[in-house]
Amino acid sequence: MRTTKTTSAGRTGGLRGVRRITATVAAGAATLALAACGAATAITGTDSSETTTTTSSSSSSTDTSDTAAATTTDYSNDLLSSLDLTTLDTHYDDDDLSWEASEEETVTLSDDGSSPSSDAVTVDGSTVTITSGGVYRISGELTDGQLVIAAADDETVTVILDGVTITHSDGTGIAVTSADEATLYLEDGTENSVSDGSDYTVDDDSTPVAAIASASDLTIAGSGSLTVTGSTNDGISSSDGLAIVSGDLTVTAADDAIRGKDYVSITDGTFDITAGGDAIKSDNYEDEDRGWVLISAGTFAIASGDDAIDAEQAIEVLDGTVTVSESVEGFEAQDIMIEGGTIDITASDDGMNATAASTTDSEDDSTADAGSAGAMGGGSETDDGSWLSINGGTVTVDAGADGLDSNGSVSLTGGTVDITSADNGGEGPVDANGDITLDGATVTANGTEITSADELGTQMGGGGGGGDMGGTPPQNG
Predict the structure, then answer these.
(1) Where are the alpha helices (H) located in 404-456, listed in sequence order?
(2) What is the mean pLDDT of residues 256-264?
(3) What is the DSSP letter of 86?
(4) Residue 123: phi, psi to the nearest 5?
(5) What is the reported pLDDT for 63?
(6) Band of pLDDT at residue 425, cut at 50, 70 and 90
């Protein structure tokens, strides 16, 4: 199903112009799939600034110009040739997890009166506030209270959760209202839980409404467990960046489960996620190098009421096991890059949807769903420059509409891909407005082994046909 991502006014303000991500990284770091596709892809060579040759091939899209012979085109696409989310800056550094035991201050939480060892921790009834940078080991329970981090904007705070239970009936369980960075470290062998209340509001607009809410960059690490319940809105939410290095996390949320506005970078961990909205989300559409989700490793069990992973600009999976048992769309971003891992998606709509964000909230927008017209090729639909690439790993998709859907191009150059798409005559295993490249991936579509991109057009659910496989290489947007 052709869909267009739309932005809407929310906690972070009204509609703004959407920028296409153009990461400025060294050309030598260009390691993504398209650069490795070779001469059989629609874009040849590894330097997008060079003159390239588009050729007709059984494993790639054909030129749809009036000239049947091969043509030479000069174009540049910094995104496709150089984007690797691992090269983008984040707040997290390995040194963030290094400290001496002598540096630790202690806080024992209690409904009868919490006990801190430092003057930098204040207690006001059931609210415990850390006011200065440092390392704090927290234990104990608040049955109706809150832990607040309110340090100076240039200070870092590390909180070791050492068997902590925090429930707040009328607000956020843990709130980072100010700091340069905050780290929640899950002590080995401990069980920790944080829950918020229902139907509350947050006075400070910069702090999200979530069980664990941060107005600053937030890191979660350690080998202990953390159970988070977001009853009003999100489970874990940062208005800046969110880095999850390790841990055993169970997150249940009324809306989004895990959100980092600028980015979500997951290095490892075990995740059991149930979300009324998106399971993992990054929604910064203002800054060109933000609004992305990177999964480097980890094990994920996801059931979401909307998208399993949603990013305004880019999603990249390097490794790990991602099992999506329930979603509307499995992955959605302008650019989706699968480099490895095992991904199993069940979706009521598209399994993966690459689409550029739009600032219109009207379904009458010219880039909105155009039905089956032009499916499987350029047709009457516009190539918006988005990109969906599978270059490794094992991907299984069971979709209620299209299996892999891109408003731009699709590149299948490695790994094993098994797609089941809708049996309604109007959807397909792979649907793109631009080029579809099949060169190196092992693809099965609706039970049939696919050996060339052209064959995908014959595997429409219910036998519906599509347009030709032509298109133009994605251009800078």
Answers:
(1) none
(2) 98
(3) G
(4) -125, 120
(5) 34
(6) low
Task: Report CA Rg, the chain.
Answer: 23
Q: Which of 294, 309, 339, 297 is nearest to 88 (CA)?
A: 294
Average pLDDT, the chain: 79
Phi, psi of 101, deg, nearest 5: -60, -30
CA dihedral 197, 203, 206, 207 (to 10 degrees): -20
Q: Residue 419 — φ and ψ, nearest 5°?
A: -120, 130
Least trusted range by pLDDT, from 81-95, 158-172, 402-416: 81-95
- Tell me the pLDDT band of 8, cut-offs 50, 70 and 90: very low
Identify the CA nearest to 78 among candidates 19, 37, 22, 35: 22
The answer to whether 275 and 290 are in contact (CB under 8 A) is: no
Beta strands in 196-297 (DSSP E): 210-214, 217-222, 225-230, 234-238, 241-244, 248-253, 258-260, 263-266, 270-275, 280-282, 292-295
Q: pLDDT digits over 219-257, tens only?
A: 999 999 999 999 999 999 999 999 999 999 999 999 999
Query: Which of 163, 160, 237, 161 lies closest to 196, judged by CA?
Result: 237
Tell how far CA 14 is from the center of its chain: 22
- Average the pLDDT over 333-358 and give the result: 94
> Which pair of structure tokens corresponds to residue 59?
């494993």
C-alpha angle 290/316/26, rounded to 5°? 65
Write the single-letter amino acid at 383: D
Backbone phi and psi for residue 94, each to the nearest 5 degrees, phi listed first: -55, -30
**Cβ of 102: how many Cβ atoms within 10 Å?**
6
The burial class, CB within 10 Å (0-12 / 13-18 / 19+), for 298 is buried
Residues in the chain: 477
Mean pLDDT of 357-375: 40
User: Alpha-carbon distance 127 to 113, whole Å?
Assistant: 10
* pTM to 2 decimal places: 0.79
SS3 28: helix
- Contact assessment for residue 256 and residue 277, using Cβ atoms and an 8 Å cutoff: yes
Q: Please count the other Cβ atoms lying within 10 Å of the Cβ belonging to residue 51.
A: 11
For residue 316, give every residue at least 6 positions away whose Cβ sits within 8 Å of its Cβ, in sequence order, or none. 84, 85, 86, 292, 293, 294, 295, 337, 338, 339
Band (67; pLDDT cuts 50, 70, 90): very low
Amino acid at 223: S
**Can you read off the two tokens belonging to residue 197?**
């209340």
Burial of 38 (0-12, 13-18, 19+ CB in 10 A): middle
Handedness of CA 381, 382, 388, 391 (dihedral sign): positive
| Six-digit token string for 367 | 């880039």
Name the helix (H) or strand (E) containing 146: strand 146-150
Parallel, antiparallel or unpaired: strands 342-347 and 387-399? parallel
